[in-house]
Model the fold of this input.
Amino acid sequence: MSNWRHKPRTDRELNQLVAPVNQVIRWLKTRRGFIIGVGILKGGTGKSTTSLYLALYCALVLNLDVAIVDTDDNSQSLSRWYAMHLAMGDKIPFTLIEHPTKGKDAIPLKKRLKSIRGQYDVVIVDLGGGDKETFIDLCEKARLLFMPSAPSGWETDRIQATLQTAASAARINLDGLDVYNFFVKCDFGSTLAEEEREAMALDLSEEDEDFIQPPFLHPYFDISKAPHHIRSWNAIPKRGDLEEWGLLIRHAMKGIIEEDEAA
Ligand SMILES: Nc1ncnc2c1ncn2[C@@H]1O[C@H](COP(=O)(O)OP(=O)(O)OP(=O)(O)O)[C@@H](O)[C@H]1O
Ligand SMILES: [Mg+2]
Done:
């Protein structure tokens, strides 16, 4: 279920906001190695859950070759999720690549991405909340950066700092980096998302000339707090659970494909 408060009134209006599935598949298949980063310089906002659902949608629904790169040395949530489900005999439709950022196997993320990107249509990079160096590396290489957070000041607090770091790192990104904020864990029965979006858009410190307006996706594409998200540690989400994620990806891809075709 997406955010019904902002639902486009007609199918035509919706289709103006999302790229058609076939166009997204064709575009990604012909390019290969499309890098999507999922990161905010803050822990616990929903980055790994977002990475998982994006990967499942791209693999199961779009039928693409997908890898997740787990860069989170501290919690390694997705690496542990992957190992656990493999041990349970579950079929996982994407590859998991561990990327240690410390210790003897550590290499810069840029180097890792260079060596693997040709093998996949889509590479999703899940970041830890505190690893600024890896975040900067990612902003130099990714084409798309998603910044998921709950609609609460407790989670959005570091978004301004993250946007400023991303903007500075993206200056040397040869393909250009599109950065998008959206909310996850949304209760669409309340107006929390609307309130928080408004609070974040306000430049509270007018002297701060570095303030960056958060680049929000259309609010219809916020993500619910449906229970399957919370259960996804134990139960691999089903195709039907991926629908709202599909709309979100198709919405972000519409902008990217249009920019690409205009270039
Ligand atoms: N859409 C959602 N609906 C409900 N709960 C969610 C949703 N997305 C994430 N969560 C919950 O939020 C918590 C944090 O999620 P997650 O581990 O994905 O965050 P993270 O940003 O990767 O954390 P870390 O910084 O530790 O890596 C988990 O309990 C998860 O189940
Ligand atoms: Mg995580």
User: Anything to note?
Assistant: The pocket of adenosine-5'-triphosphate (ligand 1) is lined by residues 43-49, 72, 75, 77, 128-129, 184-185, 223, 225, 229-230 (CB under 6 Å). Strands lie at 34-38, 66-70, 95-98, 122-126, 144-149, 178-183.
